[in-house]
Amino acid sequence: MAQGNTSKRQRPSAPTQRNQGHGKAHCLRILRQLSAYIDDELSGDICDEIRRHLGACPNCETFVTSLRQTVSLCRHSPTPPLSAANRALMRKTILETTRVR
C-alpha cells in the first residue's frame, strides 16, 4: 500500500512539467546560458525567455539562486596568493592541455 501512495505523489509532477511547456532538454538549454545571463551578456529577448522559464521551473530557479550566491561569494573573496611553484605548475598544465588539442 505504501508503494501505491508513493507513485500517486510522483505522478502529478510529470503533467505539471508538460503543462509548463518545457522539459529536461529545455532546462538544460537554459542552464547552459545562466552564466552569461547572470553577467548581463545576453540580449533582452533571451533574458525574457530565461526569466519566464525560471518563473515556471522551481528547480532552475533554485539553481540560478545558488549560482548567483556562488558568484557573489567569489567576487567578494580575496584571491589567495600563488607560490612560484604553483604558478609554474599551472602554466605547465595549461600548456600541456593546449598541446593535446
Task: Please explain how this structure is put together.
This protein has 101 residues and is mainly α. The protein has one domain (2-100). It has helices spanning 2-10, 13-19, 24-32, 34-38, 44-56, 58-76, 84-100. Helix 5 (44-56) crosses helix 6. The longest helix has 19 residues, at 58-76. It is elongated.
Instruction: Kindly name the structural category.
Output: mainly alpha
Task: Please mark out the parts with pLDDT under 50 across 5 or more consecutive residues, or reply none.
Answer: 1-20
Largest sheet: none
Strand segment count: 0
Which series of helices and strands comes N to C? Answer: HHHHHHH
Summed up:
The protein is mostly helical.
Properties at a glance:
7 helices; 101 residues; disordered N terminus; elongated
Chart the SSEs and their pairings.
Blueprint (H helix, E strand, L loop, with lengths): L1 H9 L2 H7 L4 H9 L1 H5 L5 H13 L1 H19 L7 H17 L1
Helix pairs in contact: 5-6
